[in-house]
Specification:
Length: about 350
C-alpha cells in the first residue's frame, strides 16, 4: 500500500477567518491562515511544510530580485452545496508549472509536493472557500531562485510556496481593448509560453499607456508585423465568427496555453460550435466585423474565467459590440460555472476532490 505523503503541519493558533467577509471579496488581497513552503538545496527538495501564512525573510542579494528566475501558477478551488471542496484541473497547472520551470532553468517540483501539498493545504483552509456563486479560492503556487549571491547564472537554491486567497467576481464590466501595434509581449523563441514573472513586469508600462487612453487591457500582436493577435493581459482570446469560434494557435510558443482556454474549447464544441486554432490576423477580424459576422469576443483565464470584450481598437478602426445581445459567451460561463460550482455533472473529469 502506498503511504499518503505526509507533510509536517504547524497550525495557526486562532483563525483570522471570523474577521473576514468572504462575499464579494476583492481578488488577491486577503490570504488564508496557512501556506506551503519548500526549499531546493544541494540538488533536492527538502523542508516541505505547511505553516501559518507569514512574511519571508530574504537577503538583499536574493537572486530572484536581481535576475528574475521566478514563475507562478493560478488555480481555483470551489465548494459545492454539499460542502465538498474541489480544485479545477490542477494537474494541468502542475504540468505547465514544470514546463515554465524548465524554460527558466529551474528545478522541477515533484508531484507529491505540488499536488499533494496543494491538496493538504486547501483541505486545511477549506473553510476559506466561499460557497457563493462566482466566488472561489484562488491558489497561487510559485517558485523563485533563492541564492544569496550577485552573479548572472542559474541559482543553486530555490523556494517553492503555495498561498491561497479567497476571491469574488474578478472583472465585472465588459472591457475596452487596445490592439497593440508598437510594443510586444512575446517573440518566437522567447518565454511567452511560460508563466514567468518577468512577462508581467514588462507588460505594465504598455498596459498603463492603454489605460491612460481609457482602455482596460491591450491585445498583444506578433513581433514581426503586428498583424496576428496573441492574447490579452493574463487571458487567452476567442472570436466567434458565424458558427465558428476562433482562437490563436499555440505553435509559435508566444502564447500561454491556458487551462481555461482548453476547457472553453471543449465547451464550445459541446455547444455545437466549430472550434479553430489558427493564426488570427487583425485584417481577418476587421473583414468579419464589416461583414457583420464577428459576433462575440472574449478573454479566458483562471482569474476572470470569461471576460466580455465590448470594444476592440486597432489604429483608427474601432469595433464595438453590444454584449447584452450575446448568447455564446454567457452560455460558456454558465456551463463552466455549473461544473465548477457543482451544479452540473463533471463529465470531463475536471474536478479534483480535495
Ligand atoms: C495565466 C495566463 C493565461 C490563462 O491561463 P489559465 O490557465 O486559463 O488561467 C493566459 N495568458 C497569460 C499570459 C497568462 O499568464
Amino acid at each position: 500500500m502506498v503511504e499518503a505523503y505526509s507533510i509536517p503541519v504547524t497550525k495557526i493558533e486562532r483563525s483570522r477567518l471570523p474577521g473576514v467577509k468572504l462575499e464579494n471579496i476583492p481578488f488577491g488581497r486577503t490570504f488564508t491562515d496557512h501556506m506551503l513552503e519548500a526549499d531546493y538545496e544541494n540538488g533536492e527538495w527538502k523542508n516541505v511544510e505547511i505553516k501559518p501564512y507569514q512574511p519571508l525573510v530574504i537577503s538583499p542579494s536574493l537572486a530572484a530580485l536581481h535576475y528574475g528566475q521566478a514563475i507562478f501558477e493560478g488555480i481555483k478551488a470551489y465548494k459545492n452545496s454539499a460542502g465538498e471542496s474541489f480544485i479545477f484541473r490542477p494537474y494541468d497547472n502542475y504540468k505547465r508549472f514544470n514546463l515554465s520551470a524548465a524554460r527558466m532553468e529551474m528545478p522541477a517540483v515533484p508531484e507529491d509536493i505540488f499536488m499533494e501539498g496543494m491538496r493538504q493545504l486547501v483541505a486545511l483552509d477549506s473553510n476559506w472557500i466561499p460557497a457563493l456563486h462566482d466566488h472561489s479560492l484562488y491558489i497561487r503556487p510559485f517558485m523563485f531562485s533563492s541564492d544569496e549571491m550577485i552573479g548572472v547564472r542559474p541559482s543553486e537554491n530555490y523556494k517553492f510556496l503555495i498561498i491561497l486567497a479567497p476571491t469574488g467576481p474578478y472583472y465585472s464590466a465588459p472591457m475596452r481593448i487596445y490592439v497593440e501595434e508598437k510594443y510586444t509581449r512575446a517573440a518566437p523563441g522567447g518565454v511567452g509560453q511560460a508563466k514567468a514573472a518577468g512577462n508581467y513586469g514588462s507588460s505594465m508600462y504598455v498596459t498603463a499607456q492603454a489605460k491612460k487612453q481609457g482602455y482596460d487591457q491591450v491585445l498583444w500582436t506578433d513581433v514581426y508585423e503586428h498583424k496576428y493577435v496573441q492574447e490579452i493581459g493574463t487571458m487567452n482570446v476567442f472570436f466567434v465568427i458565424g458558427d465558428t469560434a476562433v482562437t490563436p494557435d499555440l505553435s509559435s510558443g508566444t502564447i500561454l496555453a491556458g487551462v481555461t482556454r482548453d476547457s472553453v474549447m471543449t465547451i464550445l464544441e459541446e455547444m455545437g460550435l466549430k472550434v479553430e486554432e489558427k493564426p488570427v490576423s487583425v485584417d481577418m477580424l476587421m473583414e468579419a466585423y464589416k461583414a457583420g459576422t464577428l459576433r462575440e469576443v472574449f478573454g479566458t483565464g483562471t482569474a476572470a474565467t470569461v471576460s466580455l470584450i465590448r470594444e476592440l481598437k486597432y489604429k483608427d478602426f474601432v469595433m464595438t459590440f453590444d454584449t447584452a445581445k450575446w448568447t455564446v459567451t454567457p452560455e460558456i460561463k454558465n456551463r463552466l460555472d455549473a461544473i465548477r460550482e457543482g451544479h452540473a455533472a463533471d463529465k470531463f473529469g475536471w474536478m479534483f476532490k480535495v
